[in-house]
Amino acid sequence: MINRRKFIETSAFGTAGLITAQLGAELSERAGIKGKPIVISTWAPNVKANYAAWEILGMGGRSLDAVVRGVQIPEADPNDNSVGYGGLPDRDGKVTLDSCVMDEKGNCGSVMALEHIMHPVLVARLVMEKTPHVQLVGEGALQFALEQGFKKDNLLTEQSEKAWKEWLKKSNYDPMRSVKEIEEKMEKKKKDNYPWPVALLNHDTIGMVAMDTNGNLGGACTTSGMAFKMHGRVGDSPIIGAGLFVDNEVGAASATGVGEEVVKICGAHTVVEAMRRGLSPELACKEAIRRIVKNKGSQAKDVQVGFLAINNKGQHGAFAVQKGFNYCVTTKDGTKVIDAKCWYP
Ligand code: SD4
Questions:
Q1: CA angle, 55 as apex, 52 and 56 as ends, to 5°?
Q2: Among 74, 99, 125, 298, which residue's CB has the most CB atoms within a 10 Å radius?
Q3: Catalytic residue positions, numbered
């Protein structure tokens, strides 16, 4: 199988980015660590999130701070239909958000089905730092956020409301909608010789993991979940061990796609444990995908899940069930968007 890779050299990195990149490289060398810092995130549009994370990582900052900063970019972007503000609502027209964080010491925090708060990742971090708990859900999560000084926002944009009203006409829940859309767009864009990876047109959940100059790992995952889901449905993204897992001794992983399938195999944890057994990040992601494909049998072709991972050496990799999944990698050498290999090429 041919390994299709597309690299996007980032002019948007700019002078400030280069300076922080050089500083990051120097700091890493001083700390005796090669190939670090590094941050990776799901989906090409999240290059912007990588730049934001790099502003912290490149200055020698902590992974957790970097990923929390990074994922706030799509959370605040009204044009990103899968995360935060502008996310597609559930079948009742409510935008409900899922998010979690995990740090180098195994601390973690998560919010699920949180409404009205633009940056659920910040609330997840406060659950970790300020409560004796790991997970807060729905009304309780909102109550906690308001107590912490967050303000309520209307997260349903005109565009997302329109899409929901259109969906209501048939009310057909189809988690594979985005895969089909990717394929259609890919075909069309191939004809137009479009130079960008096609997923740029199909924003999605952000899972971001990083290694800082001290060799410490951290991760964050944030989403509005599957479009038009049942009210109260929670996917993999805010579940520690499913949508995100970090073990400083081994590596970190995150997931995107149909969350139910990720939860069933404890996806991100499965990837990290495979790296612990010595698999590379890419092969560890492939092993988790293999389990999903095995579970789904003949229906596997109707599911999309993608995993990405970094190991404790700062190596990275990804794997997906279907074509179309890509991820962004930022190091001192710049930012690349890489098409992940997949089970069904
Ligand atoms: C979920 N995994 O809620 C998320 C959605 C997602 O690509 O990643 N979509 O199931």
A1: 105
A2: 99
A3: 205
